[in-house]
């Protein structure tokens, strides 16, 4: 099942939980970026930066799909 179809099927409480999950993941992504910028884990910097970018893209897409499912 695609993410868009799954989001369309969410009930109101599930949608609120999903929004909370997105917010928590975004906070985690921000924390990870701060850690990378501070120089932690220098040997993993490139991999962690790629992970942070992918997580940011995923969160953006999930938020867009959630908004679309609420509008439609």
Give your account of this protein's structure:
By secondary structure, this protein is mainly alpha-helical. The protein has a domain at 42-72. 82% of the residues lie in helices and 0% in strands. It contains three helices and no strands. It has helices spanning 3-8, 12-37, 45-71. Helix 2 (12-37) packs antiparallel against helix 3 (45-71). The radius of gyration is 15 Å and the shape is elongated. The two termini are 18 Å apart.
List its salient traits.
72 residues, mainly alpha, 82% helix, elongated
Describe the secondary structure blueprint for this structure.
Layout: H1 3-8, H2 12-37, H3 45-71
Helix pairs in contact: 2-3
Alpha-carbon distance between the two ends: 18 Å
Helical proportion?
A: over 70%
Shape: elongated
Instruction: Label the structural class.
Output: mainly alpha
Q: What low-confidence regions span 5 or more consecutive residues with pLDDT below 50?
A: none
**Which band does the percent of strand residues land in?**
under 5%
Query: Could you give a short account of the major beta sheet?
Result: none
Count of distinct strands = 0
DSSP helical segment count: 3
């Amino acid at each position: 099942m695609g993410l868009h179809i799954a989001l369309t099927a969410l009930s109101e409480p599930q949608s609120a939980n999903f929004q909370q999950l997105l917010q928590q993941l975004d906070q985690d992504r921000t924390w990870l970026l701060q850690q990378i910028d501070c120089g932690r884990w220098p040997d993993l910097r490139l991999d962690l930066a790629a992970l942070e970018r992918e997580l940011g893209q995923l969160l953006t897409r999930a938020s867009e799909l959630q908004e679309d499912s609420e509008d439609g």
